[in-house]
């Protein structure tokens, strides 16, 4: 599968070759709005820091759970100020059992 950057390059090249957005979306299988958005931008590179940042380190969660193993995950989440779902997901990533 082509990377996002490669796809943007292909779209930009086709736009420069005077292809219509309809032709581009049929050739590459991208959304029409993606073609228009790429066409408006001068630079096809992503902006620095545009991705989401990790909110909580897995090791911090692991230490908190090991420090108080009998405390419920919901209580741990409330104490850490994060979502219960984040705790559950982290435990699964660390190889632990959730239920």
UniProtKB/TrEMBL annotation:
Residues 1-93 form the Transposase Synechocystis PCC domain. It comes from the Eukaryota. It holds the Pfam family HTH_Tnp_IS630. This is Transposase Synechocystis PCC 6803 domain-containing protein.
